[in-house]
Amino acid sequence: IQNWMKSIKENASAGVERLLIGNKCDMEGKRKVQRDAAEKLAKEHGIRFFETSAKSSVNVEEAFSTLARDILQKSSRKVVSGGGGAGAGGGVPRPAPP
Ligand SMILES: *[C@@H]1O[C@H](CO)[C@@H](O)[C@H](O)[C@H]1NC(C)=O
């Protein structure tokens, strides 16, 4: 995950929306990462964390719609704050208007 974060930082647009997903949460008996550890890691990177199971349809919808909502909010903030279009103001999130 540290490598993926580095890769995103180096090669993706500034301010790109990220989230951390622990998949296969239906297989509790084979858990490799404790939830606390994953939550802590997500917090360190300032991103959301979901545990999902594609097999059992747990949190998949929630993870994708939250990501979509965050992207939408971020892009509407850019418009409102007059970010100047593509390339400008990236990676400088502003607080949502009241
Ligand atoms: C960023 O992209 C370049 C070119 O594809 C690649 O060589 C480099 O390893 C990437 N950086 C990271 C941290 O993945």
TrEMBL record:
Gene3D superfamilies noted in UniProt: P-loop containing nucleotide triphosphate hydrolases
Pfam families named among the record's database cross-references: Ras (PF00071)
Q: Which family does it belong to?
A: Belongs to the small GTPase superfamily. Rab family.
| Protein name, as recorded | small monomeric GTPase
**EC numbers:** 3.6.5.2
Q: Which PROSITE patterns match?
A: RAB, RAS
**Where is this gene product found?**
Membrane
Q: Where is the composition biased (Gly residues)?
A: 81-92
Specify the protein's topology with respect to the membrane.
Lipid-anchor
Among the GO molecular function terms of this UniProt record, one is: G protein activity
**A cellular component term, taken from the record's GO annotations:** membrane
What the entry lists under PANTHER family is as follows: LD44762P (PTHR47980)
| Reaction(s) catalysed (UniProt annotation) | GTP + H2O = GDP + phosphate + H(+)
- Keywords in alphabetical order, please: GTP-binding, Lipoprotein, Nucleotide-binding, Prenylation
What general EC class does the enzyme of this chain belong to? hydrolase
**UniProt main location, coarse:** membrane
Q: Where is this region: Disordered?
A: 77-98
